[in-house]
Amino acid sequence: MTVPGVWKKSSHSGGGEGNACVEVVLRDPRIVIRDSKNPSRGTFSVPAAAFAAFIDVLKRREGRPV
Q1: Less packed terminus of the chain by CB within 10 Å, N or C?
Q2: How do residues 20-63 score in pLDDT, each as one tens digit?
Q3: 57 in the Ramachandran plot: left (φ > 0), alpha (ψ -120 to 50) or beta?
């Protein structure tokens, strides 16, 4: 999923600076999430398994209206 300690952005984060998205980092056993436009503003974390399930749902829904 991610390399520990390295913040990653989605490939869908938009053009330009690519900062219209969130960034994630693995801090096992959790995924930490922050706003790419304002990374110093704060973070929140979720269990890695819950985040993986969330991403799987998004992938299955791709192309369908939310």
Answers
A1: C
A2: 688 999 998 999 999 888 888 999 999 999 999 998 998 888 77
A3: alpha
From the list 27, 11, 25, the residue with the least C-alpha distance to 59 is 11
Beta bridge partners of 8: 24
Task: Beginning with the edge strand found earlier in the chain, give each strand of the sheet holding 30-35 in spatial order.
Answer: 8-9, 22-27, 30-35, 43-47
Q: Which residues contact 52 (CB under 8 A, 6 or more apart)?
A: 1
Calpha distance 54→37 (Å, rounded): 22
Using CA atoms, how far apart are residues 60 and 64, in angstroms rounded to an integer? 9
